[in-house]
Write a structure and sequence with these properties.
alpha/beta, five-stranded parallel β-sheet, two-stranded antiparallel sheet
């Protein structure tokens, strides 16, 4: 029985609702109109490294090679990061419902958005690696939301995902409310490449749900480079955009 038929049967038994507004929609994985309008999709011009949006163009077309002040002052350990959505009221509800509420009906749409926004990060990629959870967090949540996003991105692009190559060997407190420096310190030494895996000359794409300051991505990228990765790029579903950032 095809996936389409199974979905139709499921929709008939459990009428689909918007994952943000909890009102009926015509098919699973759809957003109600006001929720859709509340999404803020990111596009160039943006920082060529971290993907932070610029409020103006630099006169160089797509701004290829233009960096934000933050990346110029302290280059990240990764090469490039992209996300399709700004982290706002609606996207936050999408992420939290997916991350903590088991709302997975939009996972294929997430993968499509990430593949489109992250095309430059995915060009020539060898492997997709999700940012791992510590085993205690994985046990309590029962799934890694970054791995689900990685699988969706792999389906869209054909780039294989390897879930067990990067490990989180130290449980870390939540990053919420921490300063940039505290986030970096919190992530220091939290990740390691699994023994026996050499990534010599490879292009690795890290996948996570939200890019905030880049501390987690840089901590992962540092370990991947130590294992031989030549290029490390990052694709997330959302990124935080602050009005006080030097890019705004």
């Amino acid at each position: 029985m095809s996936k389409r038929i199974l979905t139709a049967i499921a929709d008939a038994i459990w009428p689909p609702v918007c994952p943000v507004r909890s009102v009926p929609v015509d098919a699973s994985g759809r957003l109600e109109a006001s929720a859709w309008q509340g999404l803020d999709f990111l596009a160039a011009p943006w920082c060529d490294c971290c993907g932070a949006p610029f409020p103006y163009t630099s006169g160089t077309g797509a701004d290829t090679g233009v960096l934000c002040a933050t990346c110029m002052a302290r280059p990240p350990k990764f090469d490039r990061a992209r996300a399709p959505l700004a982290y706002g009221d609606v996207s936050r509800q999408l992420v939290l419902g997916f991350k903590n509420g088991g709302r997975r009906e939009m996972i294929d749409q997430f993968g499509c958005w990430m593949a489109h926004a992250g095309a430059a990060c995915l060009d020539g990629a060898d492997y997709i690696l999700p940012v791992p959870l510590h085993w205690r967090r994985l046990l309590s949540r029962r799934y890694n939301q970054s791995a689900l996003l990685g699988q969706a991105l792999a389906r869209q692009t054909g780039v294989p995902m390897q879930a067990g190559w990067l490990l989180r060997t130290r449980a870390t407190p939540s990053q919420a409310g921490k300063s940039v420096l505290s986030r970096r310190r919190n992530m220091a030494g939290a990740f390691h490449v699994a023994p026996g895996h050499r990534l010599d000359g490879s292009h690795i794409v890290l996948v996570d749900d939200v890019f905030t300051t880049g501390a987690t991505a840089s901590a992962c990228a540092r370990q991947l480079r130590r294992a031989g990765a030549e290029i490390v790029t990052v694709v997330t579903l959302c990124r935080v955009v602050r009005a006080s950032d030097p890019t705004m």
